[in-house]
Amino acid sequence: MEEMTPRERLLATVAFEPVDRPFRMETIGYWSETIERWRGEGLPPEVDNELAALLYFGIDMQLPISLGAHEHPGFEPLFEEEVLEQGDRYTIKRDFSGNVIKVFTDGSSALPGFLEPPVKDRQSWEQVKDRLDPDSPGRLAPWEPFIELAKSEPWPLCVYITGLFGTHRHLLGFKGLMLAYRRQPELLHEISRHWVLFWRTVIGRICENNRPDFINLWEDMCYKNGPMIGPKAFDTFMIPYYRELVGSLRNELGIPVVGVDTDGNLTLLIEKFVEAGVNLLWPFEVNAGMDVLEVRRQWPMQFAIWGGIDKRALFTDRDKIKAEVMRVVPPMLEKRGYVPCIDHAVPPDVSLDNWNYFLELVREVGERCCG
Predict the structure, then answer these.
(1) Does some domain include residue 155?
(2) Structural domain total, the chain
(3) What CATH number is associated with residue 319?
């Protein structure tokens, strides 16, 4: 088979078509502490951030447009950051997403403590709603070079946005959202209707210049033992709006790939996302009980799978790394619709030597399976 471009490779993978080799995106990212460790183990000093590391390790290039996703619900403008209290160990601040949070003063990687969300009721929703105006002139301006570049380069244009549960949680906080399901359901529906209009309009603006290849919705709505809301709540508060937005993206705008990123165990929600028209899911955390071999058995061709290789094997030795790669990669590639990738970002438990061995092995096995 002739060599494919990264765009052709990604689109063929999601369409369950043959590829010259797997799409190379073997991790969703790197902890900052991982890169710091590796620089002490021989990583060149200029590789000092996540993007530089992805490029250094030879991923299949993509042109990403990040419009909030895990950071905020898509605000433009962002809030001005404001330090409210600073101590030797912890700092309390209002961040650019409008949340009052507690973080380590030294910047160590950890989930922040969320103390106060930007939305508590309809009045506070109205106060932040202007930041979710799809016509804000500065929203797409930073990304216009990427949108234009994708017209002439062989890389997929990928837009990363905030999913619906993610939007609700960004705005109300986790505790506030759980209470709102019972106490303020109409507020959630109002936000949801705006969510559909907002993203359909924003992505439509991008399509006027260049149609994206991939829209990814960040959700992170599952724990180790299951989703944060059950199928019944999903049916009430999410599926109507998901159907409307995903249907518009795929059918009206002609975007070929719409994916969802959620950690944890999403077994109970897979059927719901498929029903909504999503055709890619990731990263399938093994520690949360996700087994991509079993998922593929139950869902043979309904959606592409990205991930599912247990990152914990990379903490150990080459024998265990090889065993994990061989457990997952050959059978998944045989069934197509698969991007080999560990099940989250690379933590600092992984040595540079182990990471290099993993990449060399997974790529060698992938090329052999596709060849």
Answers:
(1) yes
(2) 1
(3) 3.20.20.210
